[in-house]
RNA sequence: AGAGGAGUGGCAGAGUGGUCGAUUGCGGCGGUCUUGAAAACCGUUGUACCGCGAGGUACCGGGGGUUCGAAUCCCUCCUCCUCUGCCA
């Protein structure tokens, strides 16, 4: 969430940023924030003053008791009754103001970076670059949901029997392709100096709040109610929360982590014509990269992560393009997001396979993720993450783009991982 | 899962109702001494909020309660350890 002091000091800039997102009622909400913060401050100041008085009286009573002056002590006690009531009132007032302020801040999205184009929807995203040749396929080309049946490598019906729609079963070369991609992605990340982690894939409420899935997106996560745990929608949640309530020393930055996890999304009400086959699933595999950086270095890191992901797509020989998301299409918590899309030659459309974002202090403020530099001052770090990569759509694109009448050719870089070259 | 024990500052470890944000040791930082280092000695050493400042307030696993006053008493939750059971 945004820092109140930042809103105070940069009111016009914050307002302009929210307008770039087409965020409604921005000005009045920002004014409310400042007003609630003022309320919070004044109730706390009052509370602290009275508390100080009460503490003084208590000390006095302690001394009187020690000296055996029981009567005077009793007299002093009488005065505290009123103070107690006042403290209770101011306490309530203060915590109410704090809660209201927090609730309000939760509804305000991050401020877009100056380079973010204004715009309302995906159509206004800026195409930063396109790379690779869109393949010219033979006449009998098929979308991946046909190919997987033809070669018997992914079985949706079996998944329905075992679990339900959106939980495919990968078989034979299909399963081996999954495993190969995961290993390839992890090995590449290790070469790029990311430290591998294997986090839990169920997380508690605090973690959900830490990265912002709660309270807004509660309905998007599977909830194990018996234990009040959530299945992760992305490894971003457990990996970034590793650093919740942590103060690192400046020389430990940047922190670079990579993790492979399955991801679970309920995707309630989001099924339609474009989500056939592997395009949208309830469970899928993803390798995620996360960085925690010094505030001065986060945009450099973002560019590094972007070119890193581009490198993966190039090695997989997939035609892709990079989009800079516009204000209206960007995620709630992000300051700048690049989407990577691969071209799916049989569906004849672009598929999002990665999203790389800088959250600046928006997440770290909630997480209380700080660093301490030479000057001994603690300040919020910046957090970033990106998919590197999400498997299903990569699999879809590999299958579709490389299909021939003789079979499906596997990208060269995967051969040693796969143990075969064709499906 | 059952029985018992325990959670205190970076770490170790005192503190069982009063001036305790908390004795002490180690570590860290600064200094004295030294050609340099070690040793020794001296000083310093958390986080957050409010305040221009002086300063104030909160934090002893989390939450709640008793009390004029809670690290200390009560309730509850969490975590760890030991024993028993179960298990990949």
TrEMBL record:
PROSITE patterns, per database record: AA_TRNA_LIGASE_II
Coiled-coil stretches noted in the UniProt entry, renumbered to this chain: 73-107
Residues that hold L-serine according to the record: 234, 265, 288, 385
Record-linked SUPFAM superfamilies: Class II aaRS and biotin synthetases, tRNA-binding arm
Keywords noted in UniProt: Aminoacyl-tRNA synthetase, ATP-binding, Coiled coil, Cytoplasm, Ligase, Nucleotide-binding, Protein biosynthesis
GO cellular component: cytoplasm
GO MF term set: ATP binding; serine-tRNA ligase activity
Locations listed in the record: Cytoplasm
EC number, UniProt record: 6.1.1.11
Keyword Coiled coil: yes
Residues bound to ATP: 265-267, 352-355
Domain Aminoacyl-transfer RNA synthetases class-II family profile: 176-411
InterPro entries on file: aa-tRNA-synt_IIb (IPR002314), aa-tRNA-synth_II (IPR006195), aa-tRNA-synth_II/BPL/LPL (IPR045864), Ser-tRNA-ligase_type_1 (IPR002317), Ser-tRNA-synth_1_N (IPR015866), SerRS_1_N_sf (IPR042103), tRNA-bd_arm (IPR010978)
Primary location class: cytoplasm
Matches recorded under Pfam families: Seryl_tRNA_N, tRNA-synt_2b
Pathway in which the depicted protein is active: Aminoacyl-tRNA biosynthesis; selenocysteinyl-tRNA(Sec) biosynthesis; L-seryl-tRNA(Sec) from L-serine and tRNA(Sec): step 1/1
Catalytic reactions of this protein: tRNA(Sec) + L-serine + ATP = L-seryl-tRNA(Sec) + AMP + diphosphate + H(+); tRNA(Ser) + L-serine + ATP = L-seryl-tRNA(Ser) + AMP + diphosphate + H(+)
Gene Ontology biological process terms from the UniProt entry: seryl-tRNA aminoacylation
Family statement: Belongs to the class-II aminoacyl-tRNA synthetase family. Type-1 seryl-tRNA synthetase subfamily.
Name assigned to this protein: Serine--tRNA ligase
Lineage: Bacteria, Pseudomonadati, Bacteroidota, Cytophagia, Cytophagales
């Amino acid at each position: 969430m945004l820092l109140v002091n930042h809103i105070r000091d940069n009111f016009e800039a914050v307002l302009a940023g929210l307008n770039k997102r087409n965020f409604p009622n921005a000005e009045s909400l920002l004014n409310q924030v400042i007003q609630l913060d003022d309320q919070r401050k004044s109730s706390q100041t009052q509370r602290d003053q009275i508390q100080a008085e009460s503490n003084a009286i208590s000390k006095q009573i302690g001394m009187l008791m020690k000296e055996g002056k029981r009567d005077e002590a009793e007299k002093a006690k009488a005065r505290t009754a009123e103070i107690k009531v006042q403290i209770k009132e101011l306490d309530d007032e203060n915590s109410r103001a704090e809660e209201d302020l927090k609730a309000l801040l939760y509804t305000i999205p991050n401020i877009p970076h100056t380079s973010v184009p204004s715009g309302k929807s995906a159509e206004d995203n800026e195409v930063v670059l396109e790379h690779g040749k869109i393949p010219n396929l033979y006449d009998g080309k098929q979308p991946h949901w046909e190919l997987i049946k033809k070669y018997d490598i992914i079985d949706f019906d079996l998944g329905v029997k075992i679990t339900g729609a959106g939980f495919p079963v990968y078989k034979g070369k299909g399963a081996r392709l999954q495993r190969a991609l995961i290993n390839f992605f992890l090995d590449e990340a290790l070469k790029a100096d990311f430290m591998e982690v294997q986090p839990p894939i169920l997380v508690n409420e605090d973690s959900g709040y830490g990265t912002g899935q709660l309270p807004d997106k509660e309905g998007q996560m599977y909830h194990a109610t018996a234990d009040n745990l959530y299945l992760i929608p992305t490894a971003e949640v457990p990996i970034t929360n590793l650093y919740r309530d942590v103060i690192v020393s400046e020389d430990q930055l940047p922190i670079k982590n990579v993790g492979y996890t399955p991801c679970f999304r309920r995707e309630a009400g989001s099924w339609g014509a474009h989500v056939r086959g592997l395009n949208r699933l309830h469970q899928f595999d993803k390798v995620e990269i996360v960085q925690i950086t010094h505030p001065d270095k986060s945009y450099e890191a973002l560019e590094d992560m972007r070119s890193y992901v581009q490198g993966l797509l190039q090695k997989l020989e997939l035609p892709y393009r990079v989009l800079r998301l516009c204000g209206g299409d960007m995620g709630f918590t992000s300051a700048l997001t690049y989407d990577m899309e691969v071209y799916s030659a049989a569906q004849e459309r672009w598929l999002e396979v990665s999203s790389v974002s800088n959250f600046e202090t928006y997440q770290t403020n909630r997480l209380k993720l700080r660093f301490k530099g030479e000057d001994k001052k603690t300040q919020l770090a910046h957090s970033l993450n990106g998919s590197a990569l999400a498997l299903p759509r990569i699999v879809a694109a590999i299958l579709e783009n490389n299909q021939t009448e003789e079979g499906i050719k596997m990208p060269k870089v995967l051969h040693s991982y796969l143990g075969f070259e064709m499906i």
